[in-house]
Amino acid sequence: MTSINPTELTARIERWPIAGAFTISRGAKTEAVVVIAEVSRDGQAGCGECVPYARYGETPDTALAAIAAMREPLRRGLDRVALQSAMPPGAARNALDCALLDLEAKLSRRRAWDVLGSAAPHAATTAYTISLGTPEAMAEATARAAARPLLKIKLGGDGDDARIAAVRRAAPQAELIVDANEAWTPDNLARNLAACADAGVTLVEQPLPAGRDDALAQIRRPIAVCADESVHDRASLEGLRGRYDAINIKLDKTGGVTEAIAMAEAARALGLDIMVGCMVATSLSMAPAMLLTPHARFVDLDGPLLLAKDRDGGLRYDGSIVYPPEPELWG
């Protein structure tokens, strides 16, 4: 859609307290720090939210600066398609990509999935995350969430066999997926996979460090293994052959929903299952990720459920069922 008016950009950092703490193998945090991009033109505004991740060398300040650097290109006509080559994949591009898609949807009076020519999102069962802790603490947290149908268990290396056994006892009916966040080693890989298989775990996410995951191709995997830190955008898919059975697509890694949709289609063509995942963030981050639900075997979009309070007008959660966004929120 053409316009004689330039696209204007503003950006800011927001902080959202977490309910308690969120703990994984790399540490704990008590707030979600997000960066918001807002683009406006012809009386309409589009918004996108990202979570810069230190694991990938990102900080809120560097993401904010990267977004701000696009102010003049946007005024000169940079659009969402051109953005894909103007910025590298990552959190900053995600915020801008989602903001531009939101603006396109509003200006055209269509939903974002229609703008993309993709399938409409649907209500889905999201995983609910149990933070890393002692077996006793994790069992206690799991017992409080045992009625949820899908639980994602954060693991951390040594002692994970005891943790997952304790979690299974506390939630005998729930489907379990686990996320080691690169904390396992080739020495404990087989033992931990066997413990997960014994506990009826469906999927293990990123057991070994990215770039040091050759052992996954050298053993019989008793359950499916999902790449997270080892996969970012379509360019990283080919290197997963023989090691992984699924991938976790996060918009903050792909650099937005535009690349994420294309990546999901490419991954499925390679026979890989799809998980759509998230960082801990508000519903503004989750809303565009809902467009991946038609592709996904697993949905892990519980970020707002882990916050002390979500933003006003956020996604509707009914227990573990999350619904597509209303246009007032995004898209």
TrEMBL record:
Cofactor(s) named in the record: Mg(2+)
Keywords, in A-Z order: Isomerase, Magnesium, Metal-binding
Enzyme class name: isomerase
Binding residue positions for Mg(2+): D179, E205, D228
Domain Mandelate racemase/muconate lactonizing enzyme C-terminal residue range list: 135-226
Single GO MF annotation: racemase and epimerase activity, acting on amino acids and derivatives
A Pfam family assignment: MR_MLE_C
Residues of the active site: K154 (proton acceptor), K250 (proton acceptor)
Span of the signal peptide: none
The EC number(s) this enzyme carries: 5.1.1.-
Cofactor note: Binds 1 Mg(2+) ion per subunit.
SMART domains linked to this entry: MR_MLE
InterPro entries hit by this protein: DgoD-like, Dipeptide_epimerase, Enolase-like_C_sf, Enolase-like_N, Enolase_C-like, Mandelate_racemase_C, Mandelate_racemase_N_dom
The family this protein is said to belong to: Belongs to the mandelate racemase/muconate lactonizing enzyme family.
Name this polypeptide is given: Dipeptide epimerase
The species this protein was found in: Rhodopseudomonas palustris
Record lineage: Bacteria, Pseudomonadati, Pseudomonadota, Alphaproteobacteria, Hyphomicrobiales
